[in-house]
Write a structure and sequence with these properties.
Elements: H1 5-11, E1 18-21, E2 25-29, E3 35-43, H2 58-61, H3 64-74, E4 83-85, E5 100-108
Antiparallel strand pairs: 1-2, 2-3, 3-5, 4-5
The chain binds adenosine monophosphate (AMP) and zinc ion.
Zinc ion binds next to helix 1.
């Protein structure tokens, strides 16, 4: 997707603070954190939202919680705890139409 900010980050056209990458996902630090620790698991495939996930994406998403756990361990908040949030659509406040899961830990800084 030419206009998609997360596709541009994946291509390296826009800089990001990337903490993890595998064949299906990158994980970056959110540019405007809502929690003390705020990261985004982003699919390398452009999927606009949960509404656009198909059964064919099952294998892609099978490892998303392992990715979250790995990042939580690397960032040292696996033991203290964290939230995983996916916003879908306007009423949920989804701003970027490319699938991402928020990883949130530590104290909240703003509403998400
Ligand atoms: P959502 O509202 O669920 O679509 O979340 C989009 C998130 O992407 C927000 O928390 C933004 O702060 C974050 N975001 C937008 N642009 C960037 C960027 N260039 N680098 C990192 N995070 C971003
Ligand atoms: Zn995209």
């Amino acid at each position: 997707m030419n206009d998609c900010i997360f596709c541009k980050i994946i291509k390296g056209d826009i800089p990001s603070d990337k903490v993890y990458e595998d064949g299906n996902f990158i994980v970056i630090r959110d540019i405007s954190p809502a929690y003390k620790k705020h990261l985004l698991i982003i699919t390398k495939k452009h999927i606009a939202s949960v509404n656009d996930v198909t059964e064919n994406d099952g294998e892609l998403f099978s490892s998303i919680f392992s990715v979250a756990k790995t990042v939580a361990e690397n960032e040292n908040f696996a033991g203290t705890g964290y939230r995983l949030t996916v916003n879908c659509g306007k009423d949920a406040g989804q701003l970027v139409p490319h699938f991402h899961m928020h990883i949130l830990a530590g104290e909240p800084l703003r509403n998400l």
